Amino acid sequence: MKYYEVKFIITPYTPDAADVLSAMSAEAGFETFEDNGDGITGYVQQTLFDRQALDEAIENFPFYGTKISYDISEAENRDWNEQWEQEGFQPIVIGDKLVIHDGRHKPEETTPALEIEIDAHLAFGTGTHETTRMICATLLDLNISSLTSDSSPLNVLDCGCGTGILGICALKLGATACTAYDIDEWSVDNTRHNAVINMVDERMTIMHGDATILDSLTEHFNMIMANINRNILLNDMQRMVSVMAPKATLILSGFYKEDCALLESKAQTLGLSMQQSRNDGDWSCLIFVKND
User: How many angstroms separate the CA atoms of 237 and 230, rounded?
Assistant: First the structure.
């Protein structure tokens, strides 16, 4: 996918102003930021960039006397995670029950019995990010086999699968089958690879595309997971609900605590009730159940 690189200059620069600008720019579709000393550099998918929303955020910036300017260019088409892929990551233990590791760093013998190995092309989606950890922790807390009322198969959906970690985790915890999709072909290939090395590939269907894929699906899912930014969740939630089985569970993350009220309001209009919320730093995770 193609990205814009947007360089913001903040005058006068303060870390607090940079943090607030990062949060407000989420309205315009930005996914990630880098601090560059006198401002920040943001990255946004070209198809999701809302320049009007960005200009409105800057116009309504709450720091009196602070001026913000920006310059837009097309981001260099390169492997943004090359160093990450070369170095990997240290094993991550979640809830004293699950350890996530890569092929270079094996877990210690004293770590939990449930293991997921991730050969990541992307740092996001390995368990190092707060939102991934929260969803994995939620899956550990849920009695997955209880999410259906009878012996019928328990099918899960992973929206924006990234490395495939969430679907793989659900399968290892007892889900029958997982359908996953991502708009990034690189992520789709990475998910297929990780499904193989975790020996769940025969139970995992992986597709390339966005949420419009759901329009052609005839099956319904007992549990749906989506670790995506707030704007995409708001846009795609109705499609997700359309493929939820009665009393199905929807687990959402990828957004800040201040976004929760907006997402909860949207969910209520679609017939969902919030069951639980959890936070990790500035990030949040919401768990909903379909009312019928």
Answer: 10
Identity of residue 140: L
Tokens 């919401």 belong to residue: 286
pTM: 0.74
State the Cα–Cα distance between residues 60 and 154, nearest whole angstrom.
47
Measured CA to CA, the distance from residue 224 to residue 38 in angstroms comes to 41
Alpha-carbon distances of 6 from 68, 96, 251, rounded to whole Å: 12, 40, 31
Instruction: Using alpha carbons only, give the angle 65, 67, 73 rounded to the nearest 5 degrees.
Output: 170
- Say if CB 181 and CB 206 are below 8 A apart: yes
120 contacts 102 by C-beta, under 8 angstroms: yes
If you count them, how many residues does the chain have? Answer: 292
Enter the tokens of residue 82.
């090359």
Strand 244-256 relative to strand 221-227, pairing: parallel
Residue 78 token pair: 């390169």
> 172, 159, 185: which is closest to 118 by C-alpha?
172
Distance CA 198, CA 35 (A): 36
153-210: pLDDT as tens digits: 899 999 999 889 999 999 999 999 999 999 888 889 889 999 999 999 999 999 999 9
Closest by CA position to 241, among listed 267, 204, 274, 213: 267
